[in-house]
Design a protein that fits this description.
Helix content is about 10%, strand content about 35%. It contains 4 helices and 26 strands. The longest helix has 20 residues. It starts with a helix and ends with a strand.
């Protein structure tokens, strides 16, 4: 055998050796270990904290569902983060299209940076935080899912988080706090950047809170003016002295009277009749316990007009007081809101529904009746005259 092998020409042996080495190299290359993709260097995910301090509840207006809340962002990295868009996604549907998308143009009006901003409003500097005031709108035929997750897309990365419920509270159905026609929901629920209720987030007891999230300043206008005659006389205002009513049966938690009306004036012309302490901001006020941890607040009432006192039980549609200009009121109006606390500003503002009202239209005499909806910013509405007899408050 050895003799036969020795007779094989050398060049053939060399070719066979080369083929064997090539096979070994190919086998090593095709092994499972070598087929794995090269490992990427370790890096942390996008260092952007996301949180929603208070989960929202969707409410209806016309043919739309509205979802109003705040998303807080904080840049925990050492580099600036440039925001591109924010998407709301159903966490139970994989690879689904976003339910709502807010692009950079929209974010410019939604985002409120905290602290000194860099050159671009949508760029969060290292350590900087921002509030994103969100109003998502959906057709009533396609309501929001029970939960939503946020996807924040930046210039270089993206991140999903801050899962929220869209049905945090059980909505109360209330009767209107007013009666008659031509009432305008000034600074009502909306995401308008100039809406002082919507941008009402403050820090109390070490946490961010917005009791005015769904508040409405109810006023009357004629030819775009809220008064006729002397603008410094409260009696010149169309809504002054109008009666206000209990929106539901309940117990009066607070009834405060005795603060004088202000002389109306805006901006530098506003000079409150008394020094505005924290306790006086709401002026003459009534707070009614609606049950389920919800409280109705009536503010800026006319001095001497309150017909009830703390501890009374009141009945739906019962007259409580009259509209005034007390406390932090630049002119006569009724500030009405529902929150999760009986204490001024300490509760989270929550939506509610009004059982029946009509959208007012002086051009075509519209009879657009709304049932169990919440008026939004700028809507002009008519309320029915109260046909419930005025019952006396009782103490139990």
């Amino acid at each position: 055998m050895m003799q036969s092998f020795n007779r094989i020409p050398f060049f053939i042996v060399a070719i066979l050796f080369t083929l064997v080495q090539s096979y070994k190299s190919t086998a090593q290359t095709l092994s499972p270990e070598n087929l794995r993709s090269p490992e990427k260097p370790f890096s942390f995910p996008l260092q952007l904290a996301m949180s929603v301090p208070f989960n929202p509840t969707a409410f209806t207006n016309g043919s739309k569902y509205h979802l109003i809340y705040e998303l807080y962002l904080t840049n925990f990295s050492s580099d600036p983060i440039k925001l591109r868009r924010i998407e709301l996604i159903d966490p139970n549907t994989k690879d689904a299209q976003p339910i709502v998308t807010f692009d950079a143009t929209q974010l410019h009006t939604m985002l409120q940076p905290l602290g000194e901003t860099v050159s671009d409003k949508l760029t969060l500097a290292s350590g900087q935080a921002a509030i994103v005031f969100i109003e998502a709108v959906s057709d009533v035929k396609k309501t929001f899912p029970g939960r939503l997750v946020h996807r924040v897309v930046t210039e270089t990365d993206s991140l999903e988080g801050a899962v929220i419920s869209t049905r945090q509270s059980k909505l109360q159905v209330l009767t209107p706090p007013l009666e008659g026609s031509n009432w305008t929901a000034v600074d009502g629920p909306s995401n308008n950047v100039d809406n002082h209720h919507r941008r009402g987030s403050i820090i109390l007891d070490g946490r961010s809170i917005d009791s005015r999230r769904y508040a409405i300043d109810w006023k009357k206008f004629r030819d775009s003016a809220s008064f006729s005659g002397d603008s410094r006389d409260v009696h010149s205002y169309f809504c002054y002295g109008e009666p206000v009513f209990a929106v539901a049966d309940g117990r009066v938690i607070r009834a405060k009277d005795g603060l004088p009306n202000n002389i109306p004036g805006h901006g530098a012309a506003f000079h409150p009749a008394v020094v505005l302490t924290f306790e006086r901001l709401a002026g003459n006020t009534i707070v009614i316990d609606l049950g389920n941890g919800h409280y109705a607040h009536y503010m800026h009432l006319q001095p001497g007009s309150l017909r009830i006192k703390t501890g009374d039980r009141v009945h739906k549609a019962q007259m409580l007081a009259r509209i005034g200009a007390s406390g932090d009121a630049r002119e006569p109006h009724l500030h009405f809101e529902v929150t999760t606390s009986s204490n001024l500003l300490f509760g989270e503002g929550i939506p509610y529904l009004i059982d029946r009202y009509r959208i007012s239209s002086q051009t075509n005499h519209s009879t657009d009746i709304r049932i169990n909806e919440l008026p939004i910013d700028g809507e002009v509405v008519d309320f029915e005259k109260k046909n419930v007899k005025n019952k006396q408050a009782s103490i139990h």
